Structure formats: structure tokens, C-alpha cells
Amino acid sequence: MKIVFLDAKTIGDDIDLSGYEELGEVVKYDFSSSEEVPARVIDADVLVLNKVQVNEHTIGTARNLKLVCVTATGTNNLDKDYLDRRNIAWRNVAGYSTESVAQHTFAMLFYLLEKLRYYDDYVKEERYVGDTIFTHFAERFCQINGKTWGIIGLGNIGRRVADIAKAFGADVIYYSTSGSNTQDGYTRTDFDTLLATSDIISVHAPLTPNTERLIDAKALSKMKPSAIFLNLGRGPIVVEEDLADALESGQIAMEQRLTNLESGQLSMANRLTNMELTLENEVSRNICTIAEAHLDLSRKFDRALKVKEDDELVRVRLNVLENDVRKIKQRLEIA
Q1: Strand pairing partners for 26?
Q2: Residue 330: is its pLDDT beyond 50?
Q3: How many whole angstroms separate alpha carbon 335 and alpha carbon 319?
Q4: Can you say whether residue 179 is alpha, beta or left, with left for phi > 0 and alpha for psi between -120 and 50 degrees?
């Protein structure tokens, strides 16, 4: 039996694959383009792959093929009708990523919800040490408790996210993309209601004809302007042009930066990045204005109290504020 790994590097270098050698001859390729696949699968009995497209064009030359193994959960890269016609079986790895994807969902949520980028920069750029009080309210955030969390796709991952969200005190609702998934203990609703009432929306559905381009301009327009949108599914579930338009217009507040962009959508990634830079520069300008005002007030306050110029604490505080303003102005000049 000949086993061919078509994109072994996509699962990392820390996995021991030696067990396959006990089953037969093993050939491993780091990566394979669609043009390279036909020559590499001619005499393969089993294919192991992650993201390689499997269809008549890529594996039509595989005269001995009996099984296709996908080293992931999603199988939208397989032409299942073609495999069925040739009596070629396929298997995926269902459930292996449930905990890690659920964890990543909350990592992205907290990054957006608690403005972690802003506050991390605020501390590292030494702006916090110049504050006159210990609290800072320029960027506010709220608790998950009491918020409505809408989940699109309540499979293994969706249920795990729902359970964790409930532990934080969220009111969880879900929409079944297949229309047939009703589960005890979870509140099912229609798509429009989920969009209109949710404070947080996360997608955990596979890419299917029912979900491709599901989140379009019409769907985005029904979300709350304050909604946080997280796409943990495939990129094509979202119409990226519509998403960019919604963000630019302020139609929705925040989104998870898409990692699964559609093929050829690097221009869209650049557009989203440029939007982020524009927003960051706008925030920096506001911070600069606030810092200058803070510096002016500090000087007036110190003069009013007739604090000596050689007072070390006053000098340190004023120096920090002056450096703060200078750094922000430099960042704006670079941008």
C-alpha cells in the first residue's frame, strides 16, 4: 500500500508520523499545488492531506486510490460527489479542535471587548505612569454577564462556546444553518432575530451551500451597531467587501480579523488593515490632544501649588508627559 502525504508541513513538525510506515510505503511532500497533485497521486492507494483541493482535475490520474484522509475537521476542499462516483472513501478528524477553537474564540473576544491592544500600548508607551489617577476611561468595556451571545452553527464547537459563555453569565441563543438542528438546553431562534438581538455573534458553522456568503450586507445591517462579530468558520461565509463597508460606516463596532480569506482576496486584507491603521491614527491624534491638555493642566496645577522646580517627583511626571506627547507626534508623522 502506498500512502502519500500531500501537504505534511501544514500540520507542523512536532507530530510523529512514523506509525504510517508500518502500514506501507510512505511518501511525504511539504506542500502540493493543484498543478503538482496529479503527478504525485498516480499510484497512491491512500492520500493524506489538509487543505489540498480534491476533485477530478487534481486526482483524476490516481488509478489505485481507495481512501482520502483529511487531517482537519472541515471537508469543503473535497468534491464528495466525484469521490462517490469513483467509490473512493474519505475520512476527516471530527472533534479534535473543539477545545482549542473554543479557547481561541474567547481569546479574540477579550482582545476586542476589553480593548487589550489599546491598553497594552497605553502601558508600554508609558502613558499610564503620567496619569494623575489610577483609573483611565478613554476606552471603555463591559462584562459578558447579561449580554446576548448569538451562535451560528451549534455543533461540537458551538456547544462548547455556548457552555463557556453561559458560565460567564451570557444569555445564549443559536441559529441552525441546516434548519434541522434542535438541541435540548439551548435556545434556538431564527437568523434575523439572532442578528438583531445579539451583542456578540460568533460563527462556528462549516462552509456549505447554506453558509457560503451568509453574512452579507443585509445580514450586517441587522446587527446592533455595538455588536462584536467573530468568524471562527471559513472566510467565504462572510462577504468581505460588505464587512469592510460595514466597519467603515460604523454599522458594526468590531470584528475578528479574518484568517481564512477567500482566494485572491489579499486586496481585501489590505483594505481592512488600512482601515485599522486609519482608526489607530485617529485615536493617536485624540490621545495627543488629551496628553497636551493634561500636560498644560499639570504645569498650571504645579505653579498654583508653588511646587519647587527641583522637586524630583514633579520633574519626573512632567518629563513623562512631554515624552508621551513627543512619541505620539512622531508616530503620526511616520504614518
Answers
A1: 3
A2: yes
A3: 24
A4: left
Residue 223 half-sphere exposure toward CB, CA atoms < 13 A: 27
Mean pLDDT score, 59-78: 95
Cα dist. 119→112, 145, 216 in Å? 11, 22, 32
What is the mean predicted confidence (pLDDT) over 279-292? 52
What pLDDT, in 10s, does the model give residues 225-280? 889 999 999 889 999 889 888 888 887 766 544 334 444 344 555 566 665 555 55
Q: Is the pLDDT of residue 218 over 80?
A: yes
Residue, of 89 and 294, whose pLDDT is higher = 89
Residue 200 has pLDDT above 80, yes or no: yes
Torsion angle of C-alpha atoms 76, 79, 80, 81, degrees rounded to 10:
140
Cβ–Cβ under 8 Å, residues 45 and 4 = no
Q: How far apart, in Å, are the Cα atoms of 157 and each of 13, 179, 223?
A: 26, 18, 23
Distant-in-sequence, close-in-space partners of 168: CB < 8 Å, separation ≥ 6: 143, 144, 145
- Write the CA distances from 122 to 9, 105, 129, 283, integer angstroms: 38, 24, 9, 12
| Residue 278 to residue 282: CA distance in whole angstroms | 6
